[in-house]
Structure formats: structure tokens, C-alpha cells
Amino acid sequence: MRARPRKALDQINNYVAAKTIESVKREHGLDKIIKLAANENSLGYSLRVKDAVKQSLESLSCYPDMNCTVLREKLAEIHNIDKEELIFGNGSFELISIVAQTFLEENDEAITVDPSFGWYKNVTWQMGGKVVSLPLKNFKADLTAVMESITEKTKIVWLCNPNNPTGTIVQKSELDRFLLNLRKNIVLVLDEAYIDFVQEEDFPDSVSLIGNYKNIIILRTFSKVYGLASFRIGYGIASKEIIGFLNKTRLPINVNTLAQVAAIASLEDPDFKKRVLENNKKSIELYYDAFDKLGLSYVKTNCNFILFNTGLDSEWVAGEYLKRGIIIRAGGEFGLSTWVRITIGKYEENELVIQILKELLEENNGSAI
Ligand SMILES: Cc1ncc(COP(=O)(O)O)c(C=O)c1O
Which numeric CATH code is attached to 7-44+270-363? Predict the structure, then answer.
């Protein structure tokens, strides 16, 4: 007799993470790697974080503050919400898991769009839930289709806004309409990991909704615009009642001291954030211009990544970039076999990406489409 995992786990494939810089260095014998595959921050993080982390090294033999008190106070002030309307997690990955553990019974349904952030599906399956996956319409979440797919068994709607991997948004008017008709016992998760990069107007002010809608959970992360991906810290905003439920499934000590200290320091450096956003905007324009000239189709992005159609086999394209020391994401996993998703890098890194793209297209007789 062998040990068997829970039946619900049978349908789960391990989560596909981007290759790490170290593994690519070893595999390809390269010493310089540019990683543009996991939407991290190419400009690093604020120098204030470095100083704050150094100063906190002395205290690492003690358990962290399990309530994230200082950070909680700071964010409550920034968002003009109550301190009890916040929850912290080991990145928003953990918060997504906590939401599923809190609300899903076996055979409950959770709706997501496709392609979107893959972790929503995994956590739903982990709980024995059923994933209802709806195709995007013109690369955008189709809330009409979501509403039509709701059944008695629907417990959660996972909405990534802006959406990873497309960078598209659900606008305020669309969300308002959807919420008016959404049953109050369905949890709507608004994963706003990329909110800081949004360029389109009419993006919903989700925090202002939690007073009226007790069934919304907003997720934010310090991994993207603040560049703290390795520290592991994200947070959720919801009604006190919902936060109370979520706390029942949270590990008591889930956010380490360095992560808390780094997050606080990063909030105190608006100039760093400004530089990141300026680089992002300038770089996106560089990409749009290049794609237009090359006749390639792309999706206008509100994030720190861009999805575009190379017209070539994207696995091959990703392999060619890898040989040149650049890690990108092939679109096959998103059901888009000729598309790739590239994280916005430093300006000169983006220029290099475009240069290589031109070479690859030329190698293929310029047959881009
Ligand atoms: C949409 C989305 N949500 C959540 C996460 C997880 O972020 P973290 O756990 O680093 O906060 C990511 C990471 O790429 C993401 O793209």
C-alpha cells in the first residue's frame, strides 16, 4: 500500500514558474542573464529598502510581528480604510490560496477567464472545487459571459485586473454593472497586482467599493512596482467580516520581518516608484513603435509586461532569446502558440530585445505574420 494524496489533487499539474537566472546561467554557460519572464521589477527596489533591511538584521532572532502593525497603520492611512479591513500574506500567491481555503467546499464552482493568472485554477482544484474557465473576448475579460456562467454552485469569481498575461483592464462602468447583478454570497476577488502601471482611464477605484460590497476582496502586492518579489509580501483589502474569515485559515506568522520592513521603506520612496513608472511608460512606447514598424500585432498593456504575436513558433523564439541570455515567456501555456509575453526591462534591455526580435524575423525571411 502506498500513501495517496487527496483525490482532489489528481487534476493538478505543478505550477509552471519562470526559469531562474541561476538555472539558466548553469544550463547555458552564460554569466549575464536578463530575466524578463516573471514580471519582476528590472530597476530593482528602493535604496531605502536596503538601509531599512540592514538596520533590522539585529532583530531576526525574534518572531516577526504577526499583525504587521506598522505596515497595517501605514496602509490603512494610505487607502483611508480601517486597520481591520486589511490582511497580509506571503505574497498575493498565499492570499489567493487563503481565499480558496476559506470559501470553497468540494464541488463548488469558481469562475476565471482564460488566459489569466494560473494560480486561481490550482487553488480551486486543491479545494476540490470546479474551475469554470471562460475565454477572453478580444483579449479582455467578458463580464457578460461571466454573469451568464454563474450557477447556484458559484462561490468565487477570480478577476485579475489588469489581466496577466494580456495587460487589459475591466473598466469602472463594466465592473459597476457587473456588481449590481452579482449575488451577494459570491466572493469577487479583484487581483490588482499591476494596478500601479495602469495607463487607461476609467479604471475602477475598487477600494471605494468595499463599503457597499461586503463580498469583494482586493489583492495587492509589493512584488511588482516596489520590486520586492523575493521578500514575499502582499495584502488584501475587504470588509472586516471577510477579513475575519480569511484570518481563520491564515498561518499565524506568515510575513517575515524583512518583508515588513522592506514594504514600509518602499512606501516612503515615491521617487523610486516614479522612476519605475516613467521607465515602464517610455519602454512600452518603444515596443509599440517597433511592433508597428515590424507589422506585428500586440495587446495594448496596462502592466509591466507586453504580449505580442511574433508570427513564429513561440517556443523557438523563447529558446533563441535564452541562447542570447534573455528569459522570456512563450505563449503556449496561455494557448497562444505564436505569441510571447515579455516583462518590461530597463530601457536599454528593451532595445536589445527588439534588436534580437528583428534578427529572428529576418532569419525567418521577414515573414512575421
Ligand atoms: C496577477 C498576479 N497575481 C498575483 C501574483 C503573485 O504575486 P506575489 O505572490 O509575488 O505577490 C502575480 C505574480 O506574478 C500575478 O501576476
Answer: 3.90.1150.10
Is the separation of the CB atoms in 305 and 339 below 8 Å?
no
Phi/psi zone of residue 236: left (φ > 0), alpha (ψ -120 to 50 degrees), beta?
beta
- Give the distance (Å) from ligand 1 centre to CA of residue 92: 6
Closest CA to 188 of 166, 212, 224, 164: 212
pLDDT > 80? residue 119: yes
Task: State the distance from the centre of ligand 1 to the C-alpha of 118, rounded, in angstroms.
Answer: 10
3-state secondary structure of 354: helix
Q: Model's pTM, two decimal places? A: 0.96
282 residue type, one letter: K
Average pLDDT in the 270-288 region? 98
Which of the listed residues 112, 164, 217, 342 should we mutate to test ligand 1's pocket, taking the one with most ligand atoms within 8 A of CB?
Answer: 164
Looking at residue 366, its pLDDT comes to 54
CA of residue 236 to ligand 1 center, whole Å? 12
First to last CA, the chain: 54
Does the domain formed by 47-267 have CATH 3.40.640.10?
Answer: yes
